[in-house]
Amino acid sequence: MSISIHDVSVPVFANSLRNMAAWLDKAASEKPEAELLFGRLAPDMRPLPAQYQMASDSAKNAVARLAGIEAPAMPDVEASFAELKERCARTIAFVEGVDPAALATGAEREVELKFPNGMGYRFTGQAYLTGFALPNFFFHVTTAYAILRGAGVSLGKPDFLQHLGPPNIQPAR
């Protein structure tokens, strides 16, 4: 059995971005938004909005690169929970809107990442997705979660995995 690039990218990105949007609802019900927007894990790390922006960028850029198309531009201007939730929604709409057929050859597609200093990486699509895009995405997802949790928002593992819904196995009676 094989698994498609679409199946290991689009639903993973979309589910986690939906979870992240829900975390903001929970956070807003428990803490002042202004108190959380500047939260960071360490002085040299970017604050909460940047973690959402970079998770969004990681998802949309990965899907675009794997499909061989341009990702939509999304300037990093979000300064409220509502704007961060809207960014999550726009990113989800983009990644879910990419035709799975466009990703069919994504595993073999060459992906080149260049940094501003001229250095970078060259990958096959599969190596890019599994070795860079997904780990980078989850770094920012997890950092956003940790910032909120560290600030006292009552998030737990069920919030991180809420896309699974309630358990689908029930104990025998």
What does this structure look like?
The chain is mainly α and 173 residues long. It has 6 helices and 2 strands, in the order ααααββαα. The protein has helices at 10-30, 33-37, 48-67, 81-97, 125-150, 157-160, and strands at 110-114, 120-124.
How would you summarize what this structure contains?
The chain is 54% helix and 6% strand.
User: What does the main sheet amount to?
Assistant: 2 strands, antiparallel
Instruction: State which percent range the strand residues make up.
Output: 5-15%
Rg is 17 Å
The number of distinct helices, counting runs of at least 4 residues, comes to: 6
Secondary-structure element series: HHHHEEHH
| Mean pLDDT over the residues | 95
Shape: globular
Helix and strand content put the structural class at mainly alpha
Please estimate the helix content: 40-55%
- Give the strand tally: 2
Strand order of the largest sheet: 1-2
- Terminal-residue CA separation: 36 Å
Poorly predicted segments: none
Organism: Methylobacterium ajmalii
InterPro entries: DinB/YfiT-like, DUF1993
Protein name: DUF1993 domain-containing protein
Pfam family, one: DUF1993
